[in-house]
Amino acid sequence: MTVEKPTELELLILKVLWEQSPLTARQIRELLTKRGRKLAHTSVITMLQRMVDKGLLDQLDPEVGKAFRFAPLFSEADISGQMLGDLVDRVFDGSAEAVMLSLFDVSDLDDDSLKRLRRAFNQKMREKNNG
């Protein structure tokens, strides 16, 4: 699966739709406003149409009235995985180790976060050794 990388605004729209979908342009606009991103209705419609054209969204026929509804075509895991993979390749020359070391440098991790990371790391090691 390769999809054109979403812009910052497209990603914000996707996040709204991952939480609840399908939604109309008006509903999406209202939720974006609640998140601090106030846009004109025509701007939201233009963005949604672009996202349909890029293959990020599906435009569904109206249930009632004449408002189209929109739903994401890819899961959050699909998009985040592709974006992270692109970042690893372009910025860290494909090195997952360099990414992890950089994250430790720029993130303030509490004890609970470090424990969860240690468990995830140990699980990956077990899978690798048993696989």
Brief descriptors of the model:
single chain, mainly alpha, Arc Repressor Mutant, subunit A, 2 domains, 3-stranded antiparallel β-sheet, 8% strand
Structural class: mainly alpha
- Give me the Rg, rounded: 19 Å
What is the beta-strand fraction?
5-15%
CATH top level class name of the largest domain: Mainly Alpha
Instruction: Describe the global form.
Output: elongated
The percent of residues in helical segments reads 55-70%
What oligomeric arrangement do these chains adopt? single chain
Counted beta strands: 3
Under CATH, the homologous superfamily of the largest domain reads Winged helix-like DNA-binding domain superfamily/Winged helix DNA-binding domain
The total count of helices amounts to 6
CATH topology of the largest domain: Arc Repressor Mutant, subunit A
- Span of the ends, CA to CA: 25 Å
Mean pLDDT: 91
Order of helices and strands: HEHHEEHHH
* CATH architect. name of the largest domain: Orthogonal Bundle
Provide the number of structural domains. Answer: 2
**Are there runs of 5+ residues with pLDDT below 50, and where?**
none
